[in-house]
Amino acid sequence: MGRLVVVSNRVPAAQGRLQSAGGLAVALRAALKEGSCLWFGWSGRQVAGHDGYDPEVSLDEVGNVTYATIDLTHAEYDGFYQKYSNGILWPLCHYRAGLMNYDRKDQKIYQDVNALFARKLLPLLQPGDRIWIHDYHLFPLGQALRDLGVTAPIGFFLHIPFPPWSLMRALPHADGLLRTMQAYDVIGVQTEDDARNMNDGFSIVGVEAKARVFPIGIDPENFAKQAEEGLTHPDVKKLKESLSGKPFIIGVDRLDYSKGLLARFKGYETFLARYPEHRGKVDYLQVAPVSRGNVPEYRALRRDLDEAAGRINGTYGTYDWTPIRYLTHPVPRALLASFYRLADVALVTPLRDGMNLVAKEYVAAQDKADPGVLILSHFAGAAPEMESALMVNPHDADEIADALHKALTMPAGERRARWDLLEPDVWRVTAVTWAYNFITALSEARPA
């Protein structure tokens, strides 16, 4: 079997090893251990650039994996990454078409950077390679490779939701973008809804429906081990001591409008108003690391969240109790695992999400003898697999409030029964099964 060639917008080359990299690297860790692998993408660096600038490929070998990266110019970063990928495709795919700010020149830069990726990857390819392209930044990359004569198997996986055609058509030239995806031998998405939406779009623009469901998971054994072993960490002990035995609610999300954070804060505020018996007797930690902080919509969201947290703490806080502990900086993954284990309730209430692995991590981190309760949005990709969670509509503050009260007063027997139903799916659908199933499908679709 030939090499696995992974292509993504960002590459974890700078970290040097997979275990310190981000979510995609963690998910791909097992797949990248087998045989020789190449991972290609943007270095994360921006350069001034000039007319005719042609970036060089930087190679970095770590074990059996060769990381190949290129720099982008400031103009490419702005048009391809900031404006088109994250200013157009991200809100559109999260059902927020009203937040799009389309400019044709950004679309051209997006296409040009995908063509640049194809041109720089081409000389690195070898006979027998299987190419696996990831996410919305690189929708047209497969076609760009085919245009250069690449005949290797090419697969594509979309980590975020895909909207119905009635929304997708709001994107100028959406039909052309969908047609480029015929270059892929296998297309993977997170949920049945995403597959149906994408295939409906394909049928409308007159191309073959190829989207299939490959739900992503975590490494539950390793995460559970981290959660238990981390309880002796000084920072975890400090958090536990600060709780003084009070029940503990946790939320962990990037600071993004898709995560429903404002609606979540409103739900918590409604909970404190409607169930005064919990005031002063529960702690809520919301970890929301700032993302895309220079984008106006994200700056506005942070301002609104700061105001909401301040209002809630000002209204309900006392000299010895702060209703919301609100962090906008990241917490190391190993610490989060133990924070999850301490938490009596996890609030996972996105307005729209591809999968949301926080829900699965929370379940994996629990003490099975005394597990906490997962409150989960109907609109998380994980929802169809995790129906034994307390399911809520994140737009309904009263529903969130009622779920919080129910979770905090739930008998131990019901908590264990719910966890017993959630646990098998978290252990069955893992990062390993996701990667294996996709790579197998790609190999069967077109043998290398």
Portion in helices: 40-55%
Number of helices: 16
CATH secondary-structure class of the largest domain: Alpha Beta
Looking across the biggest beta sheet, what order are the strands in?
3-4-2-1-5-6-7-8
- Summarize the biggest pleated sheet: 8 strands, mixed
Assembly type of the chains comes to single chain
Q: Which stretches are low in confidence, meaning pLDDT under 50 for 5 or more residues running? A: 14-21
Measured by DSSP, the beta-strand proportion falls in 15-25%
Number of domains: 2
| Cα shape | globular
What is the mean predicted local confidence, pLDDT?
94
Distance between the termini: 8 Å
Helix-strand pattern: EHEEEHHEHEHHEHEHHEHEHEHEHEEHHH
Number of strands: 14
Identify the CATH homologous superfamily of the largest domain: Glycogen Phosphorylase B
Fold and architecture overview:
The chain has 448 residues and is α/β, with parallel strands linked by helices. It has 2 domains: 4-217 and 431-445, Rossmann fold (3-Layer(aba) Sandwich); 220-427, Glycogen Phosphorylase B (Rossmann fold, 3-Layer(aba) Sandwich), CATH 3.40.50.2000. It contains 16 helices and 14 strands. A hairpin with a 2-residue loop joins strand 3 and strand 4. Helix 9 packs parallel to helix 12. Pfam families: Glyco_transf_20.
In short:
With 448 residues, the protein is of the alpha/beta class. The protein is built from 16 helices and 14 strands.
List keywords for this structure.
448 residues, alpha/beta, Rossmann fold, 2 domains, eight-stranded mixed beta sheet, six-stranded parallel beta sheet
